[in-house]
């Protein structure tokens, strides 16, 4: 018997056979056969009053019954169809009156009791009657404080009292901060706590809480940069454990737990868990608590458990889990302590202690190392290396690894990370190689583990040498040149300035001499012009004096000539006046007017 509790038997014909002991995981697959569990996904399950499991499937599914304690092998146990084909079930809820409420994706909400031929539909609301907000129903849960049921749909939350035929409807109202944060209630995210508070997970609106007798919803959403809030607003599952703590499963955000409360007893601080903490995947679909207080969850990469010390263990096909992806399917704790989870293409039933005792993870070894587009290939050599150096053109590599584990040797589940490149741990299922391209220069550490990193992992330091233009000597030279070059540029500049100043000074001196010569020439010309002006001025003054003298002589001559001419004229004028007076006197004696006939001719003589 090896460390993994496998019994190896040597047979007489020279063969070896391996027997796996103490592996108590029942896997019930879905298929299309007539007397089989039909449908693609086992979406929901409940334990019936007769101890068997009622299974609701999706995509050409229906309602089936399966004996959870078969005398023969579980996969050979009889599957009984309870309701018609084509019933796509979203959730099953068995109320205290042993009536099964069947939430469906297209057919609304159905009520059914064992033995009835057909279920009774809950009416969908119309203008004429009260009813469901949508025929796409996600889930149902009984109100422990009131007589009715809370119904989550894709278009809001409904409250229904079948006896009184009473309805209440709650929807998102952007103008009302106390309304639902989102109408899309999730089927695995409806729960009541010990204080009768209703907890709801929504797709995109975070967590909603409704207190008894209240109509105002309290809301918790993620806040960027604050790790004390829930990691994502797409809440896919909720669980209130035996201590009253709230567990939150999200889509792509991992798991969260409320670890502190405010004065009203409501969550104030959340603690987050993700792949980096050991989860097999960050898509959490269903949460179940076992009899020892451990929380079990289903993901897109297997199952996990987390205990009171926050130790996380993951489980997959290596542990006998027949389902890897539990896409939006539910889980249930059974009366005998076992746990059942529905998933894609089937369901699993197991006892938690059997998985915990067999969760062996083997040692991981490196098997090969190659560089793309290069002849460099390392097989066995990489197994013993702890460090490898790559040049700049070869800043990419493909590395292979394996687990020294003979159990489920054809299936592997690895968690790996390249520090400095990957922000979080990566999950790989069914493959054992990973490639990194275009790595920056620097030092990195590649780590790989089997499963949830609980086993012995393997590390490899990878150093990428930078190109010559990014090497330290070249960078030092660049820095040195950066310091010297400004000094040299200043010296060169000063030298050029001095040369230019010398040339400029010579030109200035030459121009100064030319200007002085021109000034001297102009001065001489000005002096000559001044002499000429003075000579011309003197000549003009002499001419003016000569003209003035001649004018004076002319005036004297004119005066004398005028006087000599006027005197005879005055005598003539006097004689003319005497003659005119005579003629006038003579004319008057004859009766003739002669004043007009004898004009005065002396009028212009002065």
TrEMBL record:
- Nuclease in keyword set: no
Q: Which SUPFAM superfamilies match?
A: Calcium-dependent phosphotriesterase, Homodimeric domain of signal transducing histidine kinase, NHL repeat
Pfam families, per this entry? Reg_prop, Y_Y_Y
| Keywords of the record | Coiled coil, Membrane, Phosphoprotein, Transmembrane, Transmembrane helix
The residue stretches assigned to a coiled coil in this entry are 494-550
What domain of life? Bacteria
Q: Does the keyword Acetylation apply?
A: no
InterPro entries in UniProt: HisK_dim/P_sf, Ig-like_fold, Reg_prop, WD40/YVTN_repeat-like_dom_sf, Y_Y_Y
The record places domain Two component regulator three Y at: 414-456
Q: Which residues cross the membrane?
A: 474-493
GO MF, one example: phosphorelay sensor kinase activity
Q: Quote the protein name from its UniProt record.
A: Two component regulator three Y domain-containing protein
What species is this protein from? Phaeodactylibacter xiamenensis
């Amino acid at each position: 018997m090896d460390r993994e509790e496998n019994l190896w038997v040597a047979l007489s014909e020279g063969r070896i056979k391996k027997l796996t002991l103490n592996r108590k995981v029942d896997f019930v697959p879905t298929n299309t056969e007539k007397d089989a569990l039909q449908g693609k996904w086992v979406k929901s399950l409940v334990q019936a009053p007769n101890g068997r499991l009622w299974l609701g499937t999706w995509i050409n599914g229906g309602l089936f019954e399966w004996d959870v304690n078969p005398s023969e092998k579980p996969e050979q146990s009889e599957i009984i169809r309870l309701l018609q084909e084509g019933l796509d079930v979203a959730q099953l809820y068995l109320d205290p009156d042993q009536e099964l409420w069947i939430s469906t994706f297209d057919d609304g909400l159905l009520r059914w009791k064992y033995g009835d031929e057909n279920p009774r539909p809950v009416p969908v609301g119309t203008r004429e009657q009260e009813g469901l907000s949508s025929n796409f129903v996600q889930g149902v849960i009984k109100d422990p404080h009131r007589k009715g049921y809370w119904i989550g749909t894709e278009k809001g939350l409904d409250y229904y009292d079948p006896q009184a035929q009473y309805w209440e409807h709650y929807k998102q109202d952007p103008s009302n901060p106390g309304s639902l944060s989102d109408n899309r209630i999730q089927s695995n995210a409806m729960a009541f706590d010990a204080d009768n508070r209703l907890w709801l997970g929504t797709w995109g609106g975070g967590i909603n809480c409704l207190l008894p007798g209240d109509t105002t919803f309290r809301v918790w959403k993620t806040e960027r940069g604050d790790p004390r809030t829930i990691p994502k607003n797409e809440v896919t599952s909720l669980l209130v454990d035996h201590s009253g703590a709230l567990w939150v499963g999200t889509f792509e955000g991992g798991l969260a737990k409320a670890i502190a409360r405010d004065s009203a007893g409501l969550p104030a601080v959340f603690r987050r868990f993700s792949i980096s903490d050991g989860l097999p995947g960050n898509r959490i679909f269903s949460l179940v608590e076992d009899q020892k207080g451990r929380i079990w969850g289903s993901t897109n990469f297997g199952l996990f458990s987390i205990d009171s010390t926050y130790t996380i263990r993951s489980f997959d096909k290596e542990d006998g889990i027949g389902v890897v992806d539990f896409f939006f399917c539910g889980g249930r704790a059974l009366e005998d302590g076992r746990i059942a989870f529905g998933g894609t293409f089937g369901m699993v039933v197991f006892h938690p202690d059997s998985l915990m005792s067999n969760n062996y993870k083997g040692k991981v070894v490196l098997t090969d190392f190659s560089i793309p587009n290069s002849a460099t290939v390392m097989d066995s050599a990489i197994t013993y290396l702890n460090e490898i150096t790559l040049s700049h053109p070869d800043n990419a590599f493909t590395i292979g690894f394996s687990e020294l584990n003979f159990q489920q040797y054809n299936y592997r589940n690895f968690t790996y990370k390249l520090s400095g490149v990957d922000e979080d741990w990566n999950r790989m299922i069914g493959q054992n190689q990973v490639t990194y391209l275009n790595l920056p220069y620097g030092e990195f550490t590649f780590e790989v583990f089997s499963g949830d990193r609980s086993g012995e992992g393997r590390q490899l330091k990878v150093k990428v040498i930078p190109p010559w233009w990014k090497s330290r000597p070249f960078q030092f030279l660049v820095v040195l040149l950066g310091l010297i070059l400004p000094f040299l540029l200043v010296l060169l500049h000063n030298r050029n300035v001095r040369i230019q100043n010398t040339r400029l000074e010579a030109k200035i001196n030459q121009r100064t001499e030319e200007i002085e010569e021109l000034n001297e020439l102009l001065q001489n010309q000005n002096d000559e012009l001044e002499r000429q002006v003075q000579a011309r001025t003197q000549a003009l003054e002499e001419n003016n004096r000569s003209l003035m003298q001649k004018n004076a002589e002319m005036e004297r001559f004119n005066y004398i000539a005028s006087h000599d001419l006027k005197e005879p004229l005055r005598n003539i004028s006097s004689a003319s006046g005497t003659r005119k007076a005579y003629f006038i006197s003579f004319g008057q004696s004859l009766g003739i007017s002669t004043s007009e006939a004898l004009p005065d001719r002396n009028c212009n003589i002065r």
